[in-house]
Write a structure and sequence with these properties.
The protein is mainly β. Helix content is about 0%, strand content about 30%. The protein folds into 2 domains: about 10-60, no CATH class; about 70-130, no CATH class. The chain has a 3-stranded antiparallel sheet, with no helix packed on it. Strands 1-2 form a two-stranded antiparallel sheet.
Amino acid sequence: GSSWNKCDFETNLCKVLPEFNLQPGWIRRNGQSGVGPPYSDHNGNESAYFLSLSSEMQSSSAALRTKVFLPTDEHLCQIRFHYWVSQMSGTFMVGLQKHSEDTVTNIWKVSGELRNQWNVNTITINSTEKYEV
């Protein structure tokens, strides 16, 4: 059996991202907030919330870190996410940090080839120790 943790940002952050731990640069907003595209979430809902990089952060980077996940000995962990890359030079990366390691290993990245539209991706993680994404 699979157990999905759905993360939709409607009331706040979700179980996967530590509560109230929005790193500088990230804002929780919807398409009606008046700060530019996207004007809806991936379902076309203008009032649904998503996380967005604030416009002041366009030239620098900002990270989001998940909670600590337990080892995936029995099940693989799959993380499915919708994303929007608007700027030409923007790169969106997913990194994996195992608890015995000091460094974050990049396991997926995209640069703006599919700009100004919602895309979806699923990454699969296999780790024998606790980790964060």
